[in-house]
Structure formats: structure tokens, C-alpha cells
Design the sequence.
């Protein structure tokens, strides 16, 4: 463990003054919407047997990842916006950075697997049920988690060898590599190159796979004779493409570049985009517009309402 510093003070947007309390209220509302939307999707997929198919299992896993992903950072961000700063131990800082990156990378892989699922469903529909079985789906989710949680280990180990002698104040919203590199007085070339290589490799491999997959999907859809079939196929893929563009676009701006190129203020603004907007939009774009999920939600809302009415009638 690094002995040059015991912990860090995370300042966030320190120049906002009392205006940060207004941001606290907005962020708290957004966090409530994120948790409500993603918990609803995850629970509905879990309890509704009709939704125990690969497409919905992937959607439920995506919502679960977003719940964990935001829980790593947003509660701390709320504290920062309310009181102005927060202290975090060095080990806690590393843990926060590890889980933030591992969950984000896992979501990256999961979106790639979801593209493969859409490819099989549209380009090879007759064999879909035999290829994308429940067992296969669970294995793919496990592999996504395994790869996601292994990917950030190397760059986190390298951080433990850096001496932090400039300051212990992080001008960011949580612990991340870029703000930490601003505090070290050692040569960070190896850290920057390693991080850039890992992020670039993951990003370009997954985006290339998704792009080639959707190229084949588009060709298959265009060749369909039925207009209704083309419409349904495009509708099925549109939600996933939207989520992919939101997620990968945000990640590309933040991580597929040398980590010390931009000012901390720029990093903070981009951070808000992919830590808040992406988990907020995922349920609305990918799941809540889906007819089957809406039917399942309506069913359980009606059942819950009937149960409450029954309980009241017994009481009276």
C-alpha cells in the first residue's frame, strides 16, 4: 500500500459556492429516478416468468449494473455538493476507482453481447432458441462480469507505486485515474500508456464488433421482403443502438485519450454525462418503451392495487 499519502479530500466543483445546494437537489432527484427506473426493470425481469428470455435477462442485468454503477459514485457526489468536500482514505479511493471502472467495463462487454443477441435473432431467427439458450445467456453474463472485473487490475496496481507529494486535494467528483495523476510528483508515462492501451483495446474491439454486427443486421433487414418485418426488426435494434451511442460516446471522450490532456473542469463535466445521464436514460430508452415490460409492470401494479383494496375491505 502507498505510504506517501493516507487519504484525499475530494472537492468537486469548489468554485460554485452556495449554488452547489441547488445542484444537490437536482442530483438527488435524478438519482431517485435512476434507482426507481433501474430497480423496476431488474425486479420485473426477475419476477415475471415470461421475461426469462435472453433479451430481457440482458436488459435486467444492464439495469442491475447501472444500480451498482451509480451507487459507487453518486452518494459521495451528493455529500460533496451538500457540504463542499469529502475525505476518503487511500484504500477507499482505490476501491471506488476499481468498482467504478470494473462495472463500467462490464457494461461495455454486456452491450457488446446484447448486439450479438440481436444479430442471432434477426440474421438467424430459426436457430435463435437453440443458440441463445438460458444457459448460454448466463454464461455470457458471467464472462462479461469476469472480464470486466479483471480489466482494471493492472492500472490500479501501478497507482499504488506512485508517490503523492504535491497535494491531497482531488478536484473531481470521485476518485479516478486522471485527477490522481495530477497529484503525483513522479513520472506517470507508464501509467498513462498502460491505461490508454487497455481502454483503447477494450473500446475499439467492442465497438468494431458491434459495428460489424449491425452492418450484417442492416443488410439482412434491407433484404427482407416484408415491410412489417423490416419495421419490427429496426424497432428491436433502435433501442440498443441508442444506448450504445450514449454509453460509448461518453466513454470515448473520457478514457480513450491520454489522461492528462484536459483540465479537471472538463473531466468533471464529461463525468456527469456518463455517471448520471447514461444510467438515467437506459431504462427509458431500452426497457420502459418495450411492450412486454410495460405489460408486466402494469400487471404487477394492478395486482398490488387489488391486494391493497382487498386488505382494506377485510379491515372494514
Sequence:
Amino acid at each position: 500500500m502507498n505510504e506517501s499519502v493516507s487519504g484525499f479530500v475530494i472537492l468537486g466543483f469548489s468554485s460554485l459556492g452556495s449554488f452547489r445546494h441547488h445542484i444537490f437537489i437536482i442530483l438527488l432527484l435524478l438519482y431517485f429516478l435512476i434507482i426507481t427506473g433501474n430497480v423496476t426493470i431488474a425486479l420485473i425481469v426477475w419476477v415475471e416468468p415470461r421475461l426469462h428470455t435472453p433479451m430481457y435477462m440482458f436488459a435486467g442485468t444492464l439495469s442491475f449494473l447501472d444500480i451498482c454503477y451509480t451507487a459507487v459514485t453518486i452518494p459521495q457526489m451528493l455529500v460533496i455538493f451538500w457540504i463542499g468536500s469529502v475525505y476518503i482514505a487511500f484504500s477507499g479511493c482505490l476501491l471506488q476507482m476499481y468498482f467504478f471502472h470494473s462495472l463500467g467495463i462490464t457494461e461495455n462487454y454486456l452491450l457488446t453481447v446484447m448486439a450479438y443477441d440481436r444479430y442471432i435473432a434477426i440474421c438467424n431467427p430459426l436457430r435463435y432458441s437453440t443458440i441463445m439458450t438460458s444457459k448460454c445467456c448466463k454464461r455470457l453474463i458471467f464472462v462479461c462480469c469476469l472480464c470486466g472485473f479483471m480489466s482494471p487490475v493492472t492500472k490500479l496496481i501501478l497507482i499504488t507505486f506512485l508517490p503523492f507529494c504535491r497535494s491531497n486535494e482531488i478536484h473531481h467528483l470521485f476518485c479516478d485515474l486522471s485527477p490522481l495523476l495530477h497529484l503525483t510528483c513522479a513520472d506517470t508515462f507508464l501509467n498513462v500508456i498502460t491505461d490508454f492501451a487497455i481502454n483503447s483495446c477494450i473500446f475499439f474491439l467492442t465497438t468494431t464488433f458491434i459495428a460489424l454486427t449491425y452492418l450484417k443486421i442492416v443488410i439482412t433487414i434491407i433484404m427482407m421482403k416484408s415491410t412489417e418485418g423490416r419495421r419490427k426488426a429496426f424497432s428491436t435494434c433502435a433501442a440498443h443502438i441508442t444506448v450504445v451511442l450514449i454509453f460509448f460516446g461518453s466513454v470515448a471522450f473520457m478514457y480513450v485519450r491520454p489522461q492528462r490532456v484536459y483540465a479537471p473542469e472538463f473531466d468533471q463535466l464529461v463525468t456527469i454525462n456518463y455517471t448520471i445521464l447514461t444510467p438515467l436514460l437506459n431504462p427509458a430508452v431500452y426497457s420502459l418503451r418495450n411492450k412486454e415490460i410495460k405489460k408486466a409492470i402494469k400487471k404487477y401494479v394492478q395486482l398490488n392495487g387489488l391486494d391493497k383494496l382487498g386488505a382494506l375491505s377485510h379491515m372494514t
